[in-house]
Design a protein that fits this description.
- This protein is of the alpha/beta class.
- It has 2 domains: 121 residues, Aspartate Aminotransferase, domain 1 (Alpha-Beta Complex); 248 residues, 3-Layer(aba) Sandwich (Aspartate Aminotransferase, domain 2), CATH 3.40.640.
- The strands form 3 sheets. The protein has a 7-stranded mixed sheet, with helices on both faces. Strands 1-2-3-13 form a 4-stranded mixed sheet. Strands 11-12-15-14 form a 4-stranded antiparallel sheet.
- α3 packs parallel to α11.
- The longest helix is centred in the C-terminal third of the chain and has 21 residues.
- The chain is globular.
């Protein structure tokens, strides 16, 4: 077959067979060889309501009958209503405003631009292991294999140790003092490291980060692109860790991935600066896109439904029970789990093909499995699929 498009994040001559999709049904997809696979990673964490969710889809369709595109500066009922609902749902510790984007990378990118403009400082403190997006600014603060391949803005980036390497943040304090507080804009941190292994800092570490922000007047940009919208069991990770962020970056599950969309929450103490003192020199052609807003409102309808919340608690227990059950398997090196996000580190690799034979698909590295199941699996479905995964892990030596 002639190559007509790029395959992301890989050499184009890849030995692995291409993943095929010919149909979807909820959190399942059908391959070209007529095999249904249960997606236990929500594609790339975004399909929190499955590959198709009728209620969210209907919200999008309803909006198409009104209008499908809008001037980015336009005021319309859906934009006002959905924004108020999102602010209410996020339940952050102070008032704030929203800047809409089309992706997590754009949410981070606009946070960096806004934070640097507000502070008139350039340097961002970020984790050694992290991923913040593929645009240049977001990639510059990313700490994984994707960063060195591009001409990133390294002179504006300073990395701090991982929580396990600096639990009391004494090394981080030294880095701040050596770099010079007068040069540092603030931190940009995932509340829980997502794609790089579900690294979960403890409350003491996060309290220490907040204390450093308060002491040195540094901004805290919380990257919640993976973690928000109940992936960790709460509207945001910042709520779980009792943080007072200056900005919160959102995307992925904000629309269940059914429309490319994102948002940046900005604390009112900063947002009001743009009323008179500064010009907000940021915008996007499809800012606050009406189809994205419609999908987001569908997500909010689901996440604020009491029965849906009861369901989330039930499948979260099933998920955690699975991690307890496999912890002592010989192949399992370590497990980490919070809410409906987890990782399994392995002593020896298992193949994607062996997972597919079990009817399972998930984010897979040679020595690690990443799990982020859709919220729409029934209790029986999730129990069955996790039992199949446990069976595979128990049998592989």
């Amino acid at each position: 077959m002639a190559k007509t498009y790029f395959k992301t994040w890989s050499k184009q001559i890849d030995q692995k067979p291409d993943l095929t999709m010919s149909a979807v049904e909820g959190p399942y997809f059908l391959t070209e060889d007529e095999k249904w696979l249960a997606d236990l990673s929500s594609i790339s964490y975004q399909a929190a309501f499955g590959h198709h969710h009728e209620y969210i889809a209907n919200k999008i369709v309803e909006q198409t009958h009104l209008f499908c595109v809008a001037n980015p500066k336009a005021v319309f009922e859906l934009k006002t209503r959905a924004s108020e609902r999102l602010l209410d749902y996020l339940d952050l510790p102070e008032a704030g405003r929203l800047f809409y984007t089309l992706s997590g990378a754009e949410s981070v990118e606009n946070a960096l631009k806004m934070a640097r403009q507000l502070t008139q400082k350039k340097i961002i403190l970020c984790r050694q292991r992290s991923y913040h997006g593929a645009s240049l600014g977001a990639l510059s603060i990313t700490g994984d294999w994707r960063n060195p391949l591009h001409f990133t803005v390294d002179e504006w980036t300073v990395r701090i140790p991982e929580p396990a390497d600096d639990p009391d943040l004494s090394k981080t304090r030294e880095i701040i003092l050596k770099t010079g507080v007068e040069n540092i804009c603030g931190f940009c941190l995932e509340t829980v490291t997502g794609g790089n292994g579900v690294i979960i800092p403890d409350q003491e570490w996060w309290s220490g980060i907040q204390a450093l922000c308060d002491e040195f007047k540094l901004m805290l940009i919380a990257d919640e692109v993976i973690c928000a919208f109940h992936r960790l069991g709460a509207p945001t990770g910042t709520a779980l860790f009792n943080l007072k962020p200056d900005m919160v970056c959102l995307a992925k599950a904000i629309t269940g991935g059914m429309v490319p969309f994102g948002a940046l929450w900005v604390a009112e103490r900063h947002a009001k600066t743009y009323d008179h003192d500064l010009v907000l020199s940021q915008g996007l052609t499809s800012y606050a896109h009406p189809l994205g807003l419609a999908a987001m409102e569908g997500v909010l309808d689901l996440l604020t439904d009491q029965e849906f919340q009861i369901h989330l608690k039930a499948i979260t227990k099933i998920f955690h029970d699975f991690f307890l059950a496999i912890a002592e398997f010989p192949i399992v090196k370590e497990t980490r789990v919070l809410g409906l996000l987890g990782a399994v580190d392995l002593h020896s690799p298992i193949s994607q093909e062996s997972l597919h034979e079990k009817g399972l698909h998930l984010i897979h590295f040679p020595d690690r499995l990443m799990l982020a199941p859709a919220y729409t699996f029934t209790e029986d479905q999730l129990s069955e699929h996790l039992a199949d995964l446990a069976d595979l892990l128990e049998r592989v030596q």
